[in-house]
Amino acid sequence: MDSLKKLEKNDMKYIFFDIDGTLTDNTTGKIVPSAQEALDKLQENGNFVAIATGRAYYKAKNFLKEVGLNNMVCNGGNGLVINHQLVKNAPLDRQKALAVIDEAENLGYGILIAPFDSIDVYSKNTLFLKQAGYRKEPTRYTIDSEINYHNLENIYKIYISIPASEETRLTLKDTLGSLRFEQEYLMFQPDDKKQGIVDMIAMIKGNIDDVVVFGDDYNDLVMFDERFYRIAMGNACDELKAKADYITDRNTSDGIYNACRVHGWIK
């Protein structure tokens, strides 16, 4: 934490970047070269630079290291990494999660539950696999007919095989953060990157008025808080652009580098 305290004395920005579609090229999954150059220069100039992602810690920690950063808001805002130390990684609200699980089960939908920050998911039957198939991401499945979801200590994510056309049947859907990347199933995970940023700034005794956020997609809407300076990528969804203070070029057209240069954070 000593390095953070030293930075607090400088004229600096606290800059948070989404990963997918912002730092990385979606076609390759790799960081855009000019974005990497911008990250390096921002840090050289004394700014606090961090990732803000919905990815779980286990999925994001290697990327953090690869791009040479030390700090990260992950797990949709429930995880905080400072100087490469995981200082917080909270699961979903237990009672709300169990209520969603019970409702989905009563409606006849398959369920997968991630009780750890890992690729492991558990279910009492194969209903999810029959209704939605296997997930496209690396996943280790455990089917245990004896499992009692209410006995799980933590619940980090929930996957429910409810089609998009039937979402309204799940009346408790909006009580937890949810995202749909596939038509076949709905994913519940923490969804408040804004709060994660606020918590991190408080922890390092930073200035909330000097926060800058970069994003591109719908899950970044919550991060575009009016207290922050909000930069939308040129490839961002229209809803995010409407909330932005500044719209830069597409991420693959040097959008991050150009925005940082225009604002005088790098040369």
Automatic annotation (TrEMBL):
SUPFAM superfamilies: HAD-like. Pfam families: Hydrolase_3 (PF08282). Keywords: Hydrolase. It comes from Thomasclavelia ramosa DSM 1402. GO terms for cellular component: cytosol. GO terms for molecular function: magnesium ion binding; phosphatase activity. This is HAD hydrolase, family IIB. InterPro entries: HAD-like_sf (IPR036412), HAD-SF_hydro_IIB (IPR006379), HAD_sf (IPR023214).
